[in-house]
Amino acid sequence: MDKILLNGLEFYGYHGCLPEENKLGQKFIVDVEIKADLRQAGETDELEHTINYAEVYDICKEYAEQRASKLLENVAENIANTILDTFIIAKSCKVKIVKPNPPIQGYYDNVGIVIKRSKK
After folding, report:
1. How far apart are CA 8 and CA 29, in angstroms?
2. Residue pair 74/39 in contact by the 8 Å Cβ criterion
3. What CATH number was assigned to the domain covering residues 2-118?
4. How far apart are CA 103 and CA 25, in angstroms?
């Protein structure tokens, strides 16, 4: 199965269980991997036969910046489901969301989640 990748999308949102996360917000980094058959797009060179990266970006931006959630799992679930519902050729979708600077004391690079969803 072919893949479409969007990596390192940066957004500023208000997700988290702690009051300061909801009030101050923070940066989130999103990676998306969509599995689809891209043969027709490769043969025809027509955008209508593939998945438009800009539309995927807009879906990620909507859930990362415009809708607040307590859990990153909820943000990722909404992104994955919307992608699968929007694009007919999308067979499965993997969404990774990273919080580079969560309000956790200690030393680490980042924290995050990865989910994978497939069409039913």
Report:
1. 6
2. no
3. 3.30.1130.10
4. 11
- Measured distance CA(72)–CA(64) in Å, rounded: 9
User: What is the Cα–Cα distance from 17 to 39, expressed in whole angstroms?
Assistant: 43
Is pTM beyond 0.90? Reply is yes
Q: Could you say which DSSP state residue 88 is in? A: T
Per-residue pLDDT tens over the stretch 62-120: 999 999 999 999 999 999 999 999 999 999 999 999 999 888 888 889 999 999 999 98
> Residues with catalytic annotation?
99
Query: Phi and psi for 45 in degrees, rounded to 5?
Result: 60, 35
Query: How many other C-beta atoms can be found within 10 angstroms of the C-beta atom of residue 83?
Result: 22
DSSP-derived letter for residue 95 is: E
Domain boundaries, the chain: 2-118
Which pair of structure tokens corresponds to residue 33?
């991997």
